[in-house]
Design goal:
heterodimer; A: 115 residues; mainly beta; six-stranded mixed beta sheet; five-stranded antiparallel beta sheet; B: 113 residues; seven-stranded mixed beta sheet; globular
């Protein structure tokens, strides 16, 4: 089983649609959670961190369910410019003092927004 | 503000040739630095990370190596490239120990023929 699993998509949606991406992770010790966005042939860029209480940034809402080890990203009123691959990222603690938390990336979910 | 640079942007190399990719970070000191590879259609794989000058940790065995000769410079090298080394190489930085967030450079797209 992969440590971070995402539906690869693609999700093809019209402009203005609401789309939700899901992600599950296997390591219950994970402490930090993120969504990154990656445009075609570009570097990943941080979209938002995900907090236990849920957080919203404009049209984007992220939710975390630690009990189910599940993370979601909701995009409302989709724009053409939202077309990209969305990467779910969790940390894997290294288990030693002073050790950093390794980022584990999902393979990504591709979104295509059409007119 | 902090910026991260990588060069070259693209590279086509024959099998067996050497490799040197460079990453530099501006606007911060003593960053944690990372090298990742993303193969076509695959997720990001961590190759190396560094917490300071001359301190390199390797994540996977391979024919690649990394060095950190200066605080804000991270270099990825190989003596002899393999076909399987083709991919998108990304450098990332993290601001110290207080955050897990990493920020990526623009990447180098390497094709080994």
């Amino acid at each position: 089983r992969k440590e971070v699993e995402q539906d690869p998509g693609p999700f093809n949606v019209p402009e203005g649609a609401t789309v939700a991406f899901n992600c599950t992770y296997s390591n219950s010790a994970s402490q930090s959670f993120f969504w990154y966005r990656q445009d075609c042939r570009k570097e990943p860029k941080l979209l938002m961190s995900v907090y236990s209480s849920g957080n919203e940034d404009g049209r984007f809402t992220a939710q975390l369910n630690r009990a189910s080890q599940y993370i979601s990203l909701l995009i409302r009123d989709s724009k053409l410019s939202d077309s990209a691959t969305y990467l779910c990222v969790v940390t894997r603690p290294q288990g030693f003092s002073g050790g950093y938390n390794k980022l584990i990336f999902g393979a990504g979910t591709r979104l295509a927004v059409h007119p | 503000s902090q910026t991260i640079h990588q060069w070259p942007a693209t590279l086509v190399q024959p099998v067996g040739s050497p490799l040197s990719l460079e990453c530099t970070v501006e606007g911060t000191s003593n960053p944690n630095l990372y090298w990742y590879r993303q193969a076509a259609g695959r997720g990001l794989q961590l190759l190396f990370y560094s917490v300071g000058i001359g301190q390199i940790s390797s994540e996977v065995p391979q024919n690649l190596s990394a060095s950190r000769p200066q605080d804000r410079q991270f270099i990825l090298s190989s003596k002899k490239l393999l076909l399987s080394d083709s991919g998108f190489y990304l450098c990332a930085w993290r601001r110290g120990e207080s955050t897990d967030t990493q920020y990526f450079g623009p990447g180098t797209r390497l094709t080994v023929l």
